[in-house]
Amino acid sequence: MISEKMERCPLIFGEVLFDHFPDGSAVLGGAPFNVAWHLHAFGLNPLMISRIGNDALGSKVERAMREWGMDCRGLQHDDVYPTGTVQVSFEGGEPAYEIVDQVAYDFIDDSLLPQLSGDWLLYHGSLALRHEASETALLKLKQIASSLFVDINLRTPWWQRHSILSMIKGADRIKLNEAELAEIFPNADTDNERIALLASSVSEQVILTGGEKGATAFPMQQGHPISIVPEKLSAITDTVGAGDAFCSVLVAGQLLNWPLEITMQRAQSFASAVVGIRGAASQDRSFYHQFTRDWGIKDSEHV
């Protein structure tokens, strides 16, 4: 059994929002929120730093977090800006996103961050940094974090190349997909050339995902790339949140000191299960039990 000892705690920063689907349904999400939700279900007690509006959707966010048992110390409330929303559509089976601007998570207040001590692994994405207020709050958290995991989510028009390159500088690990890597380094001819360009910014690993082709972890210092290929799936409900599911297990593996190859295999297995449900996360604890049992860790129901 893999050791359950966890020296660092997960600190998750960024957007929480509702994804609105074409059938009229609304599902709680946002990449950082999804990662925090999964990590809590794995029993790893993340602290989520985000901001919601003082509105009906904001109340739903907080109620869902409390009912799931999550730590709400980092959840801020905004009297001016609403809780984040996204309109999701599907083009050729792939999700497309219309992301509303000027929402609560754009204005995370650094003066309202909880006082933190201890050893923290800081995870964040790129969307919540589109406005200066939240970017300033993140910089403050970076000062107390001992490890940094950056999850690139390029959402047009909410990113600029120079900002992305600045964001990943000093990261221990980053995760992104093949299309995002090509957009960041359009003048390089191959993925290997693009990965090499990241070596001066990222200290440990670059994890590159390729959808049905699987994913590859590239060590930045020594060792060979590790690739995994997903099993063929008989039923896919939607692919929203598959990358977040994958990333949540990457973070768990780092926290629990799993070998990289095992972490990659488990991440792919979990992501493959998530595409079989509606939205990015499940409120059914039994969905997570099958994984935590196999992984030899206690899930949140027993913590």
Structural summary, described in words:
- The chain has 303 residues and is an alpha/beta fold.
- It has a single domain, classed as Ribokinase (UDP-N-acetylmuramoyl-L-alanine:D-glutamate ligase, 3-Layer(aba) Sandwich), CATH 3.40.1190.20.
- Helices cover 32% and strands 23% of the residues.
- It is built from nine helices and 13 strands.
- It has a nine-stranded mixed β-sheet with strand order 5-4-1-8-9-10-11-12-13, sandwiched between helices. Strands 3-2-6-7 form a four-stranded mixed β-sheet.
- Strand 8, helix 3 and strand 9 form a beta-alpha-beta unit.
- The chain is globular.
- It starts with 8 loop residues before the first strand and ends in an 8-residue tail after the last helix.
- 42% of the residues are buried.
Describe the SSE topology.
Elements: E1 9-13, E2 17-20, E3 26-29, H1 31-41, E4 47-53, H2 56-68, E5 75-78, E6 84-91, E7 94-99, E8 120-124, H3 132-142, E9 147-151, H4 161-168, E10 171-177, H5 178-184, H6 191-197, E11 202-209, E12 215-219, E13 226-228, H7 242-256, H8 260-274, H9 285-295
Parallel strand pairs: 1-4, 1-8, 2-6, 4-5, 8-9, 9-10, 10-11
Antiparallel strand pairs: 2-3, 6-7, 11-12, 12-13
Helix pairs in contact: 1-7, 7-8
- Indicate the overall shape: globular
Distance between the termini: 18 Å
The tally of strands reads: 13
Largest beta sheet, briefly? 9 strands, mixed
What series of H and E elements makes up the topology? EEEHEHEEEEHEHEHHEEEHHH
Poorly predicted regions:
none
Mean model confidence by pLDDT: 90
- CATH-assigned fold name: UDP-N-acetylmuramoyl-L-alanine:D-glutamate ligase
Query: Counting H and I runs of at least 4 residues, what is the number of helices?
Result: 9
**Overall domain count:** 1
Rg of Cα set: 18 Å
Provide the CATH architecture. Answer: 3-Layer(aba) Sandwich
Strand order of the largest sheet: 5-4-1-8-9-10-11-12-13
The fourth-level CATH homologous superfamily is: Ribokinase
What is the percentage of strand-forming residues? Answer: 15-25%
User: Which CATH class is shown?
Assistant: Alpha Beta
Helical content stands at 25-40%
Provide the structure class.
Answer: alpha/beta
